[in-house]
Design a protein that fits this description.
single chain, mainly alpha, Neurolysin, domain 3, 3-stranded mixed beta sheet, 20 helices, Peptidase_M32_Taq, protease, zinc, metal-binding, hydrolase
Length: 489
């Protein structure tokens, strides 16, 4: 075999083992018995030790030096393999293994602390996680520590570039929010019990409407909804609040967006560095365009209104138009995953600033809850009532995902660009949505973006799909037009 062929064969085995590790994580968050937490931590650490050894195998350096690329696929393969090898060889095996063990334990501690409204139970382990992530950043950084962590989720992005984008977005978002909250119109709200079983049945119908392939996936319950897997095994999760069916339905649609991205990647890329979504920002663009621009559109909510009536009977909203306003109701709530489209990016900007301060050492974990509450009241005008509605609500810091949060807002920006292009390409899309099928949109995204996987860097991926460089303008224009119409501005 050539050096390139040897590298490909080795990489396929590493990717397969990484898939097994991901499946352990899915199991832990869905069906694993609570008493197995410590055992799972040891299993996760052992597998991470094996993966780290493979990812830092000296033969990779030799194969990279001798391999010659003859196609764009091979060139990108070598680029990503080299990037992975460089990053992994900078992190000691001890640190990689300890991070895997600790974050597995920390996840369970966070879940219990959140359920019991007990920050004191979580703070000590968060201190340990933060210390290890700062140590990891010091190993990886050529400059800013936060940028070194961000690069794992959005290669090429920096805290300065994202901060500048957020600074451009904030004034228009805040101004629109103030106009909406000051409007006379008030959308109706749901005020009854929606049984769990009926919600889950409808959630499956919604996932099917977007083309989710049930032969390659499944829907389960999790504390924090997520999608897991790649290739031909991509699973989604949701959560159920019986007073709020939108929590379940739109979490499901959101995760279906992630899943359809992974399922749509060219099978030729399976078990290669290109066989996954290229970045979390691009990944989030798929979940957010499914959830918001398509799933909360007037055409789709008109169809969903009929399905809600069939599932729950008379639930107090009399027209599709009132239901559309209800789905898109703007209110300064506490929970990021339940936030409306106007407030969502403000949630992310707050977390972005707080975690940068944590990594830089400007904010101590002991002071995090107080800093969170003060910033939240400043940005949203309401006081945080409980820790689970404050800094304990998200799992990300518990499992060491520092640098992940800003990719959510970046995903919204990417989704705005994609939606503008998609609507121009599919002028009759609303007719399909009104009939309960988002498949034309999914198919357009599959052809324009999904199938390419990690073949291009993130910004190039969006630019190739849209025909222009990504910018926040289309997202802000869309929000102003949509909410201006709903609220009569």
């Amino acid at each position: 075999m050539t050096a390139f062929q040897e590298l490909v064969a080795f990489q396929r085995e590493t990717e397969a083992l990484a898939s097994i590790a991901e499946r352990l994580g899915w199991d832990q968050e869905t069906v694993m018995p609570r008493g197995a937490a410590e055992q799972r931590a040891e299993e996760t650490a052992a597998l991470e030790s094996v993966l780290h050894a493979r990812r830092t195998d000296p033969r990779i350096e030799d194969w990279l030096a001798r391999a010659e690329a003859e196609t764009p696929f091979e060139a990108r393969f070598l680029d990503l393999a080299g990037r992975s090898y460089n990053r992994n060889t900078r992190v000691p095996a001890r640190l990689a293994t300890e991070l895997a063990r600790l974050t597995s334990l920390s996840q369970g501690i966070w879940a219990e602390a959140r359920a019991e409204e007990n920050p004191a139970a979580f703070v000590p382990v968060l201190k340990q996680v933060l210390a290890l992530k700062r140590e990891e950043a010091e190993c990886l950084a050529d400059g800013d520590l936060y940028d070194a962590l961000l690069d794992d989720y959005e290669p090429g992005a920096t805290h300065r570039s994202l901060g500048a984008m957020f600074d451009r977005m904030r004034p228009r978002l805040v101004a629109l929010r103030e106009r909406v909250l000051g409007a006379e119109f008030r959308p109706p709200v749901l005020d009854q019990v929606f049984p769990e079983a009926a919600q889950l049945r409808l959630a499956r119908i919604c996932a099917s409407a977007f083309g989710y392939d049930w032969s390659c996936g499944r829907l389960d319950i999790a504390v924090h909804p997520f999608s897991s897997g790649s290739g031909r095994d991509v699973r989604i999760t949701t959560r159920v609040v019986e007073s709020d069916p939108f929590n379940c339905l739109y979490s499901t649609i959101h995760e279906t967006g992630h899943a359809c991205y992974e399922l749509g990647i060219d099978e030729e890329y399976a078990f290669t560095p290109m066989g996954h979504g290229v970045s979390m920002g691009v990944h989030e663009s798929q979940s957010r365009i499914f959830e918001n621009q398509i799933g909360r559109s007037a055409a789709f909510t008109g169809w969903l209104y009929q399905r809600m009536t069939e599932a729950f009977g008379d639930f107090g909203i009399c027209t599709p138009e009132a239901f559309h306003a209800c789905v898109n109701r703007v209110t300064p709530g506490f929970i990021r995953t339940e936030a409306d489209e106007l407030h969502y990016n403000l949630h992310i900007m707050m977390r972005f600033d707080l975690e940068r301060d944590l990594i830089a050492g400007r904010l101590a974990v002991d002071d995090l809850e107080e800093a969170w509450n003060a910033r939240f009241e400043q940005d949203f005008g309401v006081a945080v009532p409980t820790p689970s509605q404050g800094f304990l609500q998200d799992v990300h810091w518990a499992v060491g995902l520092f640098g992940y949060f800003p990719t959510y807002a970046l995903g919204n920006v990417y989704a705005g660009c994609l939606h503008q292009t998609l609507r121009a390409a599919l002028p009759d899309l609303d007719a399909s949505l009104a009939g309960g099928s988002a498949r034309p949109a999914t198919e357009w995204l599959r052809e324009s973006l999904h199938r390419h996987g990690g073949l291009r860097p993130p910004v190039e991926t969006i630019e190739a799909a849209c025909g222009f460089a990504p910018t926040e303008g289309p997202l802000l224009d869309y929000l102003e037009a949509k909410f201006g119409a709903i609220y009569g501005l």
